[in-house]
Design brief:
The structure is a single chain. This protein has 190 residues and is mostly helical. The protein contains ten helices and no strands. Helix 2 runs antiparallel to helix 4. The longest helix is centred in the first third of the chain and has 21 residues. The protein is globular and about 55 Å long.
Length: 190
């Protein structure tokens, strides 16, 4: 998650000023800033943490009654909507797309079939909370489909969450590339 936010700040100066180099000198530009991607990453983290806290505040008996997959995250959709809207409305000038601003300010927010990269940009906290690749994929879907419910938006977020989970759990590049090919062909040339 910290890496995603650092990448957001470092890359913010290039967002509408594309470059064709890997030389990011200086790494932290004085004009660099956090963007909508960082704000939403924090919001997703808080939604996941809210779920963990809610579950741990249940009695042992109540926890046993929630005997289903992802029981700890039963309220994730509701919590994600709440936190994305809370943080998003606090930082309306962070650089959101037009449709996302409409979602943030709507009285009744609904998914809007987005396939943009916003969902993939905010999903890194999922890797911290998930206990398996399957759980990373499932949690990714829950925090993504509230806005980016187009199949490509869901796939982009899931592939990012799974690859991130694998990276923090000690998988090497080749293993990550192998599973990543499930989502996208990796045999292209720039």
């Amino acid at each position: 998650m910290i890496g995603a936010i650092i990448g957001d700040i470092v890359g913010s100066v290039y967002e509408f000023n594309n470059i064709k180099t890997k030389d990011f000198s200086p790494f932290f530009n004085e004009k660099g800033r956090f963007t909508d991607d960082s704000v939403m990453t924090f919001a997703v983290f808080r939604a996941l943490q809210d779920c963990k806290d809610e579950f741990q505040n249940l009695s042992k008996e109540q926890q046993k009654q929630r005997n289903f997959p992802l029981a700890e995250y039963a309220n994730l959709t509701k919590n994600a909507i709440k936190r994305l809207r809370e943080y998003g409305n606090k930082y309306l000038e962070a650089g959101y797309g037009r449709k996302f601003i409409l979602w943030l300010t709507s009285k009744d927010p609904k998914p809007y079939n987005s396939y943009g990269n916003g969902a993939a940009m905010r999903v890194s906290p999922v890797a911290y909370f998930a206990s398996s690749i399957e759980e990373a994929a499932a949690l990714s879907k829950l925090v993504t489909e509230i806005t980016h419910n187009h199949p490509d938006g869901l796939k982009g977020a899931e592939s990012t969450a799974v690859a991130t989970w694998m990276a923090i759990n000690g998988f090497d590049k080749k293993e990550i590339a192998t599973i990543f090919e499930k989502y996208y062909p990796l045999d292209f040339k720039y």
